[in-house]
Each structure stands twice: as C-alpha cells, then as structure tokens.
C-alpha cells in the first residue's frame, strides 16, 4: 500500500488509504479517483506480488449516477443537500435515494445487499413508509391539459364543455385528484379549472365557444 499512497496527490486521501479507507469526489485529480475505483471496485490491485485493496469508500451522492460501485453495505448519511440558489438544505429526490440504495449488493459475492439511511427523527416515519410501502403513481396530465383538450376537440371526441368535464372524469388524473387533492395544489375545483383552460384556449385563438356551450377548434388549434 505504501507504493500506492506514494503516487496519491491528495493529502487527505493519503491519510485515509493508510487505514484502508478510500475517498471519492469531484475535487480529486483523475489519477486519485481511478486508484480508489480500482482498489474498491476490483477489490484488489497487484503491486509487487502483493494484493492491495480497500473495503470502505466515502463518496458524494453524485457517485450513485456514475461508476457502478456495488457494495455489501451502503450507508446514506443524511438525505439533504445544500442548494446554492435557494441557500438552504433541501431533500434529495426519492429517485436519488433509490439509486444510492441500489448500490447495495454485489451479485458475484452477496445474495442480498444492506442499505442504511440516517435521517432526522422528523423524517423517520416518511422513510419507513417509503421503504416498506409502495408510493402511489401520480398523474402529470394537468401540466399538458390544454394540449390534450385541443387534440380531443380536433378529433371530435369533445364537442361541448360538458364533454370536456366528462372526458376529465375518465382519466387517471381525476382519480388521483379525488384521492389526493393536495398533491395538485389546486385551490379551485377541477370544474372551474377546466373552464379556465377552455377560456384561455379561446383567447389564444385555438378554439371557439358559442352561447350553447359547444366548442370547436379554430385553424390555429387544428394545425398545432
């Protein structure tokens, strides 16, 4: 290990490698990072007829999306990171936490992997639920609702405002809206929201509405 440490540039990495602990982050020079990767991922480096390796690696969260580092045990120390734009700590997306947990388990060595998450007490219940219960799939239809409404009007599926209301009730978005309205942050009812969407489309010249509440597409709407 002395020969390997001699080629390391980072002083902190030199210190930890002597105890069999590696460090991996973007601030290291490429050679130092590659050395840690070989020592940990391959679990060995042949040096003068000796096998050198490390079994503990301290890394930043970005490593979860980079090089594949399978490990028997993954410890996630905290689920927040500092956001320079807002100048506060915010939670990691669930997908990032899952990705980090996914590093646990070495197919060639382990039948199962172990992941440990260290969080504050106020978030313990959330992560217990996250780990043991499936999260519901939410709808993103609201973000593109005008496009879908226009497409259905062009296709002739929607010919009136009542048809528009009925169309929404057939969607998964409506089911989730009834069960979890807070997720969509809608301070108004979905009926009023649909009315606003139709009014906006009429102002934009995409569709036309008459006094009998019938709707039809304009040239601009049919060409989009």
Automatic annotation (TrEMBL):
<dbReference type="Pfam" id="PF00271">
    <property type="entry name" value="Helicase_C"/>
</dbReference>
<dbReference type="GO" id="GO:0016787">
    <property type="term" value="F:hydrolase activity"/>
</dbReference>
<dbReference type="InterPro" id="IPR027417">
    <property type="entry name" value="P-loop_NTPase"/>
</dbReference>
<dbReference type="InterPro" id="IPR001650">
    <property type="entry name" value="Helicase_C-like"/>
</dbReference>
<keyword id="KW-0067">ATP-binding</keyword>
<dbReference type="InterPro" id="IPR050474">
    <property type="entry name" value="Hel308_SKI2-like"/>
</dbReference>
<dbReference type="GO" id="GO:0005634">
    <property type="term" value="C:nucleus"/>
</dbReference>
<keyword id="KW-0347">Helicase</keyword>
<dbReference type="InterPro" id="IPR036388">
    <property type="entry name" value="WH-like_DNA-bd_sf"/>
</dbReference>
<keyword id="KW-0378">Hydrolase</keyword>
<keyword id="KW-0547">Nucleotide-binding</keyword>
<dbReference type="GO" id="GO:0005524">
    <property type="term" value="F:ATP binding"/>
</dbReference>
<protein>
    <recommendedName>
        <fullName>Helicase C-terminal domain-containing protein</fullName>
    </recommendedName>
</protein>
<dbReference type="GO" id="GO:0004386">
    <property type="term" value="F:helicase activity"/>
</dbReference>
<dbReference type="InterPro" id="IPR057842">
    <property type="entry name" value="WH_MER3"/>
</dbReference>
<feature type="domain" description="Helicase C-terminal">
    <location>
        <begin position="1"/>
        <end position="153"/>
    </location>
</feature>
<dbReference type="Pfam" id="PF23445">
    <property type="entry name" value="WHD_SNRNP200"/>
</dbReference>
């Amino acid at each position: 290990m002395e020969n390997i440490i001699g080629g390391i540039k980072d002083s902190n990495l030199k210190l930890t490698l002597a105890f069999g602990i590696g460090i991996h982050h973007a601030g290291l020079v490429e050679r130092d990072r590659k050395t840690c990767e070989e020592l940990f991922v391959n679990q060995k480096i042949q040096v003068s007829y000796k096998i050198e390796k490390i079994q503990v690696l301290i890394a930043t969260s970005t490593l979860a999306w980079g090089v594949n580092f399978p490990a028997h045990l993954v410890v996630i120390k905290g689920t927040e990171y500092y956001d320079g734009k807002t100048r506060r700590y915010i939670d990691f997306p669930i997908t990032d936490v899952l990705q980090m947990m996914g590093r646990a388990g070495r197919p060639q060595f382990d039948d199962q992997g172990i992941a440990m998450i260290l969080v504050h007490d106020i978030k313990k219940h959330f992560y217990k639920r996250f780990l043991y219960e499936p999260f519901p799939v939410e709808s993103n239809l609201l973000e593109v609702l005008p496009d879908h409404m226009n497409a259905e009007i062009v296709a002739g599926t929607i010919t009136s405002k009542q048809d528009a209301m009925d169309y929404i009730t057939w969607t998964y978005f409506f089911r989730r809206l009834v069960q979890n309205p807070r997720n969509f942050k809608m301070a108004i009812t979905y009926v009023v929201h649909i009315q606003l969407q139709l009014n906006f489309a009429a102002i934009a010249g995409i569709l036309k509405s008459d006094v009998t509440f019938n709707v039809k597409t304009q040239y601009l709407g049919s060409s989009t």
